[in-house]
Every structure is written in structure tokens, then in C-alpha cells.
Protein: Nucleoside diphosphate kinase
Organism: Sulfurimonas sediminis
Amino acid sequence: MERTLSIIKPDAVAKGVIGKILDRFESNGLRIAATKKLQLSRADAEAFYAVHAERPFFNDLVDFMISGPVVVSVLEGENAMQKNRDLMGATNPKEAEAGTIRADFAENIDANAVHGSDSVENAANEIAFFFAEREIS
Ligand code: RTP
Ligand code: MG
């Protein structure tokens, strides 16, 4: 069964919609194989988003990701990576389809409620970044 990594970002945690977002996953065939709430350090966020290090929005992205606690989860199911991306909607919530997580819970392109791995290969690396294998079941 395919696995992907989800992060409920600080804006959505602060809004109190952790449960509503996790329900979207479970209601759409994605099993929660692992989950935890944590505060990222600056070093954590810089390492996690290292692929974006040269992008103009990198510093704002890191500042935002450490602005409060996040909830990281391993989602498991058929086509889990793409299914999660479909449930999330477009990066910019103004462009996100109605009924997607970002359309319903995100403020703007920076505070956009959720992260999801964008390939199965990246998913494996992102899962290993946050979870030991014994924490996933
Ligand atoms: P994510 O990685 O968080 O799941 O989002 P994504 O794949 O939809 O978007 P990505 O291109 O990977 O960008 C990562 C995060 O950086 C912020 N961003 N800001 N101001 C901008 O033009 C801009 N572009 C991206 C977003 O918060 C995005 O989720
Ligand atoms: Mg991305």
C-alpha cells in the first residue's frame, strides 16, 4: 500500500481544524498510519524544505512553518500521494477547487493549511524525516 506524508501547517492548527482535516483523509480512503503534533525548529524547517532553499519565498516559508506547532501524519492507501494532493487542492487557495482542504481552510499562498509529498520518492524521504519505522502501523 502506498504511503505519503501530510503536514497540517501552523495556521490550520491555530484555527482548531486538526480534526476536520484528519477526517477528510479518513473519509476519502486514506488511513492514518502515524500522527504526531510537534514544534519544528528553524533547522528542521530549513532541512525539510531544502529543495526550496534558492526560491525567493524560502525565508518566509521557514518563518511560517515554525510560527506554531504542526501535525505530521503518514497517510496510507491506494494512490495515497496523488489522492492527498487532490484532497489538498492548489497551492494558492484562491485557485483551489471548491471542497478541497485549502479552499475550505487556507488563508493565502503562505498560510495554506497543509503540505503533502509531491512524489512517492519524496514521500519516503519525508516520512523517514519525521518517523521511525516502529512508529508507523
Ligand atoms: P507543499 O510543499 O507545502 O505541500 O505545497 P506545494 O507542493 O503545493 O507547493 P510548493 O511549490 O512545494 O511550495 C511550498 C510552499 O511554499 C509556499 N509558496 N509560496 N509565494 C509563493 O510564490 C509561494 N510559492 C510557494 C507555499 O506555502 C507552499 O505550500
Ligand atoms: Mg511541495
Notes: The pocket of magnesium ion (ligand 2) is lined by residues 118 (CB under 6 Å). The helical segments are 10-15, 18-27, 42-48, 58-65, 80-88, 101-105, 120-130. The first strand starts at residue 2 and ends at 8. The CA atoms of residues 81 and 120 lie 6 Å apart.
